[in-house]
Amino acid sequence: MAESPDPFRIGLVQMSCSSGRSENLAKAEAHVEEAARQGAQIICLQELFQSQYFCREENAAWFDLAETVPGPTTAALSKVAAARKVVVVAPLFERRAAGLYHNSAAVIDADGALLGLYRKMHIPDDPLYYEKFYFTPGDLGFRNFDTRYGRIAVLICWDQWYPEAARVASLGGASVLFYPTAIGWHPHEKAEFGSGQRDAWRTIQRGHAIANGIYVAAPNRVGFEGTPEEGLEFWGSSFISDPFGQLIADASVDQEEILVAECDPGKMEEVRRNWPFLRDRRVDAYAPILNRWLE
Thinking of the domain 8-276, which architecture would CATH place it in? Predict the structure, then answer.
């Protein structure tokens, strides 16, 4: 019988962001090094970690934050990855060409080599989340990456609400779905809806873990960004779920933290044998899902 791949340890960085790009990058590098000291082998930063969440408004000046991949940020993090022998998932604002930008995540292997990119597929357009103004939808599909320590998939924030994305990424053989995130409360909604919104965010992702028998890891930012009337209070709550949907690590709503937990592909084998959802999928009957709506 074929043996499962070896267990490995993943780390999530939950941090606040200032308006200084170099300051945010330096903080991220320091947190990656600390996660490595704590034993993490694959470390994921939060969505758009190099800046505050600029999508709260539509302002063409923010396009100046974008950079190429490879570029300065991937070069800096590649040095840290190689020095610490860790894999780094680095979500950033990608400038692909003049007028063509993506919300992307670069995957850097433990030798510092750039393994590739994931480009966010689902782009929201909601109050204070005006991402369609900035980002072209991804065109690379739901990719898997073979890192030194394990096979992973990366999706980004709004992707986390779509079971189709989680399923396709899981079918590629990944052991972990990483969901770097920037999500928080509108000031005028928190009292009435805040608890339910945060619970729904965790529940949908834990559901992906259960439905696919896979680890799910979601790093989010913390801190208040913007004006008191038109800002966002990012709710942190970064977490790692096992393939049974149980939280094995979780963070607070307002503190910078590093989470580290073991991912054991053998646990995936056990869960999938007892909950054989992949076995019982009716792949012959799912064609209607490719329609926008069934009239």
Answer: 4-Layer Sandwich (3.60)
